[in-house]
Design a protein that fits this description.
alpha+beta; Nucleotidyltransferase, domain 5; two-stranded parallel ribbon
Length: 187
């Protein structure tokens, strides 16, 4: 979601700086991580380096100031507002008294929305259990009885989860995100 929104709004960058986290690089079992594949398909160079300052900023400033958010949607809005403020408000001596956004140049590589969505769809196989359900990242989703014991594909596009068998959609659900909400004594 964040990558799609950023690429749609700002265009495709020439390169992206990333740390060496396992989600960003190939493992011994796989020649290429999904992230590496996506960037290669979009013609974006992946540069590995230190990004600890960004993490420190997120932990020190953003997280502490936004602990009161209990729903992902409001946290995403707060992140956008925070990034907007940090890009437009502070004046830096390193930038001759200008803000960082004064030095931003919009990418000339504007992605086609359909192509970008095609790259950002996440697909994985799942086996249908005897309970007529599949498990998808800790949540269960029902499928028709006919598919018990069969392998189906989960297709995540945005916040919609489709379950397919042989390119036929057999079930469709909004992605369960209740685990992102803070539990209270009354819940």
């Amino acid at each position: 979601m964040v990558i799609h929104e950023t690429f749609t709004h700002c265009g495709l960058p020439k390169a992206i700086l990333s740390d060496r986290g396992s989600q960003f690089k190939a493992s011994q079992l796989h020649e290429e991580a999904e992230y590496q594949y996506l960037l290669r398909q979009l013609g974006i160079e992946l540069i590995y380096g230190k990004v600890e300052d960004q993490f420190r900023f997120i932990q020190r400033d953003f997280v502490l100031e936004n602990l009161h958010h209990s729903v992902l949607d409001t946290l995403i809005v707060a992140w956008g507002q925070g990034m907007n403020w940090h890009n437009w408000q502070p004046r830096h001596h390193a930038h001759q008294g200008e803000c960082p956004a004064d030095h931003y140049v919009r990418s000339l590589r504007q992605p086609n929305s359909e192509d970008l969505e095609l790259h950002l769809i996440h697909e994985e196989p799942r086996k249908v259990m005897r309970t007529r359900c599949i498990s998808y990242y800790g949540h269960t989703y029902r499928v028709p009885d006919d598919y018990i014991g069969r392998r189906v594909w989960t297709v995540l596009k945005g916040e919609n989860l489709r379950i397919e068998y042989g390119k036929e959609v057999i079930a469709q659900y909004p992605l369960k995100t209740d685990y992102l909400q803070v539990k209270t004594k009354d819940s």
